[in-house]
Amino acid sequence: MNTLEIKNLNVSIDGQAILKDFNLTIPKGEVHALMGPNGTGKSTLAKVMAGHEDYTVESGEILLDGENILGKEADEISHAGLFLAFQYPMEIPGVSIANFIRAARQARLPEGEDINAVEYYKELYAKMDSLKMDRKFTARSLNEGFSGGEKKRCEILQMAMLEPKYCVMDETDSGLDIDALRIVSEGVNHMRSEERGFLVITHYQRLLDYIIPDVVHVMYDGRIVHSGDKELAKELESKGYDWVKEEFASASA
Amino acid sequence: MTTTLENPTHSLSANEPSWLAERRAAGLDQFKSLAMPTARDEAWRFASVGKLSIDDFNPVPAPATSTLDALTERSDLVTARAGRCVYVDDAPANFEGISQELADQGVIYLPLTEAIEQHPELLEKYFLQESTELGSEKFFGLHAATVKAGAVLYVPKGVEIADPFVNYYWTSGTRSAVFPHTLVIAEDNSKVSVVDLFFSETKENEALNISVSNIHAGANAHVFRKIVQDWNEKTVSFQLDTTVAERDAQVQNVAVNIGAERARFESQTRIEGPGADVKMYSLTVAEESQEFDQRTYQTHNAGNAVSDLLYKNALLDNSRTIFSGLIKVAEGAQQTDAYQTNRNLLLDPTADANALPGLEILANDVRCSHGATTGNVDEAELFYMMQRGISRRVAMQLMVFGFFEEVIEKIDSDELAENLRQLIHNKFESKIK
Ligand SMILES: Nc1ncnc2c1ncn2[C@@H]1O[C@H](COP(=O)(O)OP(=O)(O)OP(=O)(O)O)[C@@H](O)[C@H]1O
Ligand SMILES: [Mg+2]
User: Fold this and answer.
1) Rounded to an integer, what distance in angstroms lies between the CA atom of residue B385 and that of residue B6?
2) Least CB-CB distance to A75: which of B381, B390, B406?
3) How many domains is chain B partitioned into structurally?
4) Which of A72, A103, A247, B366 is a Cys-bridge partner for A76, taking CB atoms 3.0 to 4.6 Å apart?
5) Is residue B305 domain-resident?
């Protein structure tokens, strides 16, 4: 029950199959890395998990602690405990980070109950400090005019503030400089616990030096074709994906 | 048309100066002789003039004292103020005059009728001297013939007043017609701010408003006017506003439009001196079958001056907005900077935003721009917000506030800005599902 379980998921867009009998189980307490060539469907998987409506789910199930979240609205899935750190975070003009996160927190409270503003800001500032984000950012419009790295930090800030059960991080490392990569990774490691599972989508083994995964999966053509321990990421880094593709081609031949 | 509106019965002209009686008579003439607007009139393009009716609205007797007191009580959006007047159905409900200190400096802040009695020369010079040229001439005529409620503010040379003057205009009675008037005369080097608020007592009381406001900003005067139009949706409203800016004057108008079934807003800005800088900001939330019809005219008669207009509209349901703006730069008004922007955010596909931006430039060395954009809610932004657990309704609300923030942040009073956010929030609360 304490797992995020994806079973035989088939997803298409405009009649084109993208996820093909996809299977993956992430138990709480574990970090799973998902790697794979461009266009294999990693972000599609992340968005479908989060309830994006552009994709057609042909079949399958996504069970969050046993509860099927497929077909639910994005906000319900969020309340169920899934957080997606976006590959490309949206810019929301005129909505400050502080107000945005506050609205997200407020949405988790029962009707009629209000956030304690003092405690909220205290927590927000503490988490910003640990991510080395300037406190001035709270008043800035969400992601508007942020550098690529600033956007990614802001995703992790939101993740830390919302304390999800499962975190899906889509290429959070891209756009981060070396220091930021370390800071963000520390933020993530700080959140690691027996109560929380992670799916870390990345192209680079470097991130996995900081966030050490329990399992590494290689995705190709809409499904996981290889799983292993953290050494697998190193192997990919040195050998590239060709061997995966070849293996896949000969297996499916 | 009802007889009452055509033949004002109240004893306005009894002790009024002759110049005013003449202006009223001319106004009545104008009202009677001009035809009702039709769909063929350029000035009324896109407006649903067929539904425009001022029939069966009448000036009503003064409401009961209890009503006047209750609405005075509710006139509390701005607590730090230099003066306040409250009208209900054009009857005076409450008047807070200025401090002795301001009076000693020569500041005048009075209800319209008292200002006419006590300062006839001043009023003769400024009162009812700026008509509209944007299509509502007929209604301006009726206003001139009938007006008795209003606030007159005169700030002498060099006097600076930090707190705003706050004018509340309420409607309450049955099919009440009101004609509020705000007149601001800011002499050279003075500094002043004004808030005009238009409210209905209940959600149901039907009303007709034909209001006029004129700002005269002298050389290097600073005037900041905020307008809150939150009539109920049983109100037909005409707001006919003008601003005249002399050399180096700085005028800011910020309008928040939430209410009325049909709201026609005509705003004219005339720049008469170099160095003047006039800003016109407006935000509108339109819902149900509301129609907001906004016509603006920026005239630059002197060079080296700036006018900047930004009108933002958020539309829901079957609501409509019309923005028609014209910038006119007179011959010789070189180095004019004139901008005009209209942005519309459609929250429902059934809403309808129309834009007619225009330029007429007779000088050759100018910087002018005009533009209009209309967009739908961005689904990717919505998904992003919902992924954080925010409901569709709240996400849309945040987006609209985000869209408006650019205008709201221009408001210098945190209290008023917050109250405006609350008014907009209230409007949405029941709306976005
Ligand atoms: N909205 C969409 N419309 C059309 N095609 C789409 C859409 N979203 C994804 N696709 C297609 O689905 C495939 C998988 O895309 P996806 O973004 O999931 O890949 P990815 O593995 O995340 O790649 P990358 O490593 O480059 O981020 C691609 O071929 C992509 O073009
Ligand atoms: Mg991707």
Assistant:
1) 55
2) B390
3) 1
4) A72
5) yes
| Residue B124 Ramachandran class (φ > 0 left, ψ -120 to 50 alpha, else beta) | alpha
- Tell me whether residue A245 is in a domain: yes
Rg of chain A over all Cα atoms, to the nearest angstrom: 18
Angle between helices A178-191 and A117-130 (to 10 degrees): 130
Phi first, then psi, for residue B134 (nearest 5°) are -105, 10
The domain in which residue B86 lies consists of 4-377
Q: Does B386 touch chain A (CB under 8 A)?
A: yes
Residues B82-96: tens digit of each pLDDT = 999 999 999 999 999
Residue A103 is assigned to a structural domain of this protein: no
With respect to residue B71, please indicate whether it lies within any of the assigned structural domains. Answer: yes
Mean pLDDT over A220-229 rounds to 93
Of A39-53, A90-104, A157-171, B1-15, which range is least confident? Answer: B1-15
Give the residue-averaged pLDDT of B381-402.
92
Reference B347, options B408, B427, B244; nearest CA is B427
Query: In this predicted complex, what is the ipTM?
Result: 0.95
Angle of CA points B50, B53, B54, to nearest 5°: 160
**Residue bearing the CA closest to ligand 1, atom 29:** A39
Atom of ligand 1 nearest to the CA of A46: 18
Q: Is A4 helix (H, G, I), strand (E, B) or coil?
A: strand
Domain housing A175: 3-92+147-252
**Looking at residue A24, which CATH number applies to its domain?**
3.40.50.300
d(CA B321, CA A84): 38
CA distance A26 to B151: 70
The answer to whether the CB atoms of B391 and A78 lie below 8 A apart is no
Measured between alpha carbons, how far is B153 from B147 in angstroms, rounded to an integer? 16
Rounded to a whole number of angstroms, the distance from the CA of B408 to the nearest CA of chain A is 10
As a whole number of angstroms, the distance between CA B350 and CA B331 comes to 43
Please state, in angstroms and rounded to a whole number, the distance separating the CA atoms of residues B405 and A223.
45
Q: Nearest-CA neighbor of B299 among B271, B338, B332, B267?
A: B271
Structural domains of chain A, count = 1
Task: Answer yes or no: is A99 within a domain.
Answer: no
Residue B367 resides in a domain: yes
**CB contact, 8 Å: A95 with chain B?**
yes
User: No. of H helices and E strands in chain B?
Assistant: 10, 20
State the CB neighbour count (10 A cutoff) for residue B15. 9
